[in-house]
Amino acid sequence: MSDVGECMRRLFPVLASVLVLTGCAAGKPPSLDRATDALLPGQDLVSLVRPAAELRHPRLQPITIDPTHALSPQAVAVLAVIASPDLKAARAQAQIAQAQSFAAGLLPDPSISLGADFRQSGPDRFNGWTGALAYELTALRDRGIVLDEAQKALAQVRLDLAWQEWSIAQQARLLAVRIVSLDQISRLAAEARQDADKALKAGAAAAQHGDIRADELATRRLAVVDAADRQTQALRDLATARQDLNVLLGLPPATVLTLAADPPPRSALHLDPAALFEAARRQRLDLLALKSGYESQNAAVRKAVMDRFPAFQLSLNSAQDTANNKTLGPAVSFTLPVWNFNRGGVAVARATQDALRAEYAARVFAARAEIYAAADGVLRTEQERRVVREQLVDLRRIASASNSADHRGDLSDTAATAVRQTLRDREIALQGLDQAFEEQIISLELATGGPLK
Questions:
Q1: Can you tell me the distance from the alpha carbon of 350 to that of 331, in angstroms, rounded to the nearest whole number?
Q2: What 8-state DSSP symbol labels residue 33?
Q3: In sequence order, what are the beta bridge partners of 334?
Q4: Helix, coil or strand: residue 425
Q5: 375 burial type by CB count under 10 A (0-12 exposed, 13-18 middle, 19+ buried)
Q6: Which helix (H) or strand (E) covers residue 453, if one does?
Q7: CATH for 313
Q8: Domain that holds residue 262
C-alpha cells in the first residue's frame, strides 16, 4: 500500500497544476453591456477622416473628407463601409473563418494514455502500468485537402464581406441622394404653401368686399390644405431618410449630416444590358464568393471520398505487469470499411455541391433580371425627365409673363398664382424624377457589381 501512496503523492501535484491552468485559460469574457455602451455614442467625422483616405476595397476608392464641408454621396458611401455597426459585426464574424483556416493548417498533437494496476494480493511483488504514445496518421493524409477547403471557404467569406460592404455603401449613397432631393422638394413645397397662404389671405379680404365668389374662396382653402399636406409628407420622408442614414452609419439619432448634391444627373446614357450582364458575371463579388464556396465544397467532396478508405492510427505501447515483465512494441489501429464506407458523408457532400451549383445559377438569373429591369427604368425615367424639362421651358416663360402682367394689373392674382403653382408642381416633379434617375443608376451599379463606365 505504500507504493499506492507514493504514486498518488506524485500524481497529485500534476493533476492540481492541470486544474489551475485550465481555470486560468478559461478566463472571464468581456462584458456585453460595456461593449455595447461603447458603440452607442457613435463616431465623429474627424475620427473617420484617416480611415476614409486609407480604405482598401476592390470596388470603392478611398476619398479625402473635410469634416467642415458638406459630404458628397460618394463620401457617405465610404463612411458607411468604415462606420456601419452591421459591417463591424460582419468583420468580426469573418475572423471565425480566418481562425478556421489557421486551424486547418495545424498538425494534430500526439495523444498519450497512461494506466496503472495496483497490486492488492497474490504472489507477485510489483504493480503494473501501461503507457502508449499514439498519432493519427489520417490527418497527415488529408491535410492538403482540408487546408484547401478551409482556404477556399475563407476566400468565400472575404468576398461575401466585400459584397456586403459594397451593398451597404450603395445603400448609404442612395439615402444621401434621397436626402438632398427631399430637402429640395420640401423647400419647393414650403414655397407653394406660402404662395397658397398668401392667395387665401388675399381672397378672404376680397370676399369681405364681395369681390370674389364663395366657391373661389373654398378652392383657395383646398389649395392651402393640399400644399400643407405635400409639405408635411416631404418633411416626413426627409426625416425618415435622415434617420435611416444615421442607423446605417452608426450615428446617434439626433445627428443631422450636411450633405452636398452631386452634379446634375447624367442624361442620354447608352446602356447595353447584355454587356452589363456579362460584366456582372465577371465582377460581382457575391458571384465570385459563390465560386469560391463551390471550390471549397469540391475539396469537401474529395475529403469525403478519401474518408472511404481506412483511417490509420499508429501507437507505441509500453507496459509492465505485476511479475515485472516489461514489454515495448508498436500498434496500428484502423477502421474497416465494410458496411458504412462513408457513403453517407459522400452523399451529403455531393448534395451540398449540387445545391451550391443551383444557388449560383439562381443568383446569375436574378442578376440578369435586376440589370435589365434597372436599365429599362433608367431609360424610361430619362425620357420622362426630357419631357418635363421641355415643359418647364414654356412654363417659366409663361410664369415670367404672368408675373409681369400681375404687377401691371393686367392679370388677376388668382391666375398668376395658378401659373406659379403649375410651374412649381413641374419643378417638384422634375426633382423627383432626378432623384429616381440617380437611385436607378445606383441600383444598376449595385446589380452590375461595380461603377458604370
A1: 35
A2: H
A3: 312
A4: helix
A5: buried
A6: none
A7: 1.20.1600.10
A8: 2-448
Q: Quote the cell numbers at residue 252.
A: 446617434
CB atoms within 10 A of CB 359: 13
Length of the chain measured in residues: 453
Sheet holding 312-320, edge to edge: 111-117, 128-136, 312-320, 326-334
76: part of which helix (H) or strand (E)?
helix 73-83
What's the CA gap between 135 and 137, in Å, rounded? 6
Grid coordinates representing 39 are: 458603440
Give a yes or no: residue 453 inside a domain: no
Question: Could you list the pLDDT tens digit for every one of the 453 residues in the chain?
Answer: 444 445 445 554 555 565 555 555 555 666 656 655 555 555 677 888 898 999 999 999 999 988 888 999 999 999 999 999 999 999 999 999 899 889 888 888 999 998 888 888 888 888 999 999 999 888 888 889 999 999 999 999 999 999 999 999 999 999 999 999 999 999 999 998 998 888 888 778 877 777 777 777 788 888 889 889 999 999 999 999 999 999 999 888 888 999 998 776 565 567 899 999 999 999 999 999 999 999 999 999 999 999 888 888 999 999 998 888 999 999 998 888 788 888 899 999 999 999 999 999 999 999 999 999 999 999 999 999 999 999 999 999 998 888 888 788 777 777 888 888 889 889 999 999 999 999 999 999 999 999 887
CB 289 within 8 A of CB 159: yes
CB atoms within 10 A of CB 169: 27
pTM for this entry: 0.82
Count up the domains in the chain and report the number.
Answer: 1
